[in-house]
Amino acid sequence: MTILVPIKRVVDPYAKVTPLADGSGIDTSGVKFEINPFDEIAVEEAVRQREKGQDITIVVVSIGPSEAEEQLRKALAIGADRAILVETDAEFDSLGIAKELEAVVKQVNPEVVLMGKQATDDDCNQAGQMLAARLGWPQATFASEVNFSGQTATVKRESDTGDETLTMPLPCLITTDLRLNEPRYIALPGIIKARSKPLDRQAPAVNAAPKTRTVNVALPPARLAGKRVASVQELVQALQERGAIGA
Amino acid sequence: MSKVLGVVFSAADSYAIQAFAAALGMPFDLLCLSGAPVTDAGAGKVIEFGLGDLPVADSAATMIQNHASGYTVIAGVSSMASKDVLARVAGLLDAGMITDVIKVNSPTQFVRPIVAGTMLATVDALSSPLVVTFRPAGFELPARGGSSPVETLNWDVSAVAQVQSRSQKSGGRPDLTQAKIVVSGGRPLKDAATFEAIIGGLADALGGAAGATRAAVDSGIAANELQVGQTGKIVAPDLYIAAGISGSTQHMAGIKDSKIIVAINKDGDAPIFEFADFGLVADLYDAIPEFRRLIGK
After folding, report:
1. 3-class secondary structure for A62-73?
2. What homologous superfamily does CATH list for A2-217?
3. FRET pair for B95, CA 20 to 30 Å: which of A35, B72, B241, B297?
């Protein structure tokens, strides 16, 4: 079985980032880039499935600038077998990404696409579902547990009210949530080995015109400075005065 | 003529969609994926299927696609269910999508948070139809009234994915994303029983919902559906009480639209005090029982 794991290069989710002065985007100067954490969980999960003893080939793909090789090498170090970089400086919206990934799926022929539920930079949570729709595959988003048995995937997924378990025939698409696993620490031998694994660069196949475009990025209005209260009594009084709780 | 198709995932969605359509200045119809149809939200019509539980995404998205013709905007209230289904609808319709809209500048320009809510992006829709999920907090509820005609149809789209089991919503507390008051706790709550007694107890005393941090959920103190933050629930209550929560960027992303934020934390340097309208440096195990005594509950 082949699992395709799309990964996105994002600004370090724990770094403090600000808008560019002209509002045209995010100021990424001096900021580290990482694999989108949900995508890293997806790579880890694919490797764990293989470690259960199944015959699984793991292909990782990223759509982005030349520098996204760093993130693909990290995925190879976690345990992916080979990588594809769809190299572009173009800004695709989620649908544009889904179309490029669709072309990669036709090329790689995976039984499963496993990817993050959302990227921590644009927080869209769209590309996986859009790709599943375009492929006509069933989907399970927000996965917290994944099992493959023969031609069936069983996925426990988080929902607004708790969780549910879905079964789907392969091929299928799964997006990962936080609690699926905790990605491993990568030891040096893995990093060295990853350098010699195949990484193919190719141009975007579709280059779809965007259907949405970000025209400005700004800081949100600051909340007014709050006040410290000295006691629970003062707190209760203040909340009662504001009408937030009954007197 | 421009028109909205509002997809109803849970009971309270209909009025939120009414508010959102008003912000767009467009008439709207409703398509109900669960619960009883709401007829006094001013919809042109309400399509329903007599469904109890939400259908799986592959089936739901195809059904919405079958009804999408003639609509400019297909909209739903932001939730895990709406993101699951409506992004698939966008894929089927070859439509652009804007997630978590908090403000409408014009029928083709919207504002949404990015990077865990640390920035706001203004996004243009360049084509129609457009698929949108929105957070209801920023949209004023119009008056209810009228009586929309209801079309009851058969659900005739089979599902590829099959539901094996589904947990039921626990307790009688209001829904976290709809509640007027939310009381949340972090890892200092120690264990599930303590969390339930302290956080659940205060939530019940105030008629509110209980929420939790990712750390509390990950350490098994609280159920995963209670997680508030960038990757959990986004809440916007009138009153948010954070007890034993330091205030990570990811958690704050889920609460910053709350009208009043109260922080109770032993650590006076916790970042949450920068955001809180009222901050109390105190041990929550002393402060919360005293709070309940003072309000007589």
Report:
1. EEECHHHHHHHH
2. HUPs (3.40.50.620)
3. A35
What is the model's pLDDT at position B88? 98
A-B contacts (CB, under 8 Å) = 258
**Strands of B162-166's sheet in order across:** A199-202, A82-87, A57-64, A2-6, A112-116, A172-176, A139-149, A152-159, A162-169, B162-166
Q: Which of residues 47-86 of B touch A (CB under 8 A)?
A: 56-58, 61, 79-81, 83-85
CB contact under 8 A, B164 and A165: yes
Q: Test B123 with A215 for CB contact under 8 angstroms.
A: yes
What are the boundaries of each domain within chain A?
2-217
Residue of A nearest to B207 (CA): A245
pLDDT category at B169 given cuts 50, 70, 90 is low
The pTM of this model reads: 0.93
Give yes or no for residue A225 having a pLDDT over 90.
Answer: no
Going from the N-terminus, what domains does chain B have, and what CATH number goes with each? 4-152 (3.40.50.620), 181-294 (3.40.50.1220)
ipTM of this complex prediction, to 2 decimal places? 0.95
Q: What is the pLDDT of residues B99-110, one digit of tens each?
A: 999 999 999 999
Note the pLDDT of residue A99: 98
Please count the other Cβ atoms lying within 10 Å of the Cβ belonging to residue A178: 20
- CA distances A84 to A61, A79, A193, A199, A207, Å, are 5, 15, 17, 6, 17
Q: Are A212 and B166 inside 8 Å of each other by CB?
A: no
**A171-212 per-position pLDDT tens digit:** 999 999 999 999 999 988 888 889 999 999 999 999 999 999
Nearest chain A residue (CA) to B297: A246
Amino acid identity, residue A10?
V
B183 touches chain A (CB under 8 A): no
Q: For residue B217, list chain A residues with Cβ-Cβ distance below 8 A.
A: 179
The residue among B93, B103, B119, B225 with the most chain A CBs within 10 A of its CB, best to mutate, is B119
B88, B92, B290: residue with CB nearest A232: B290
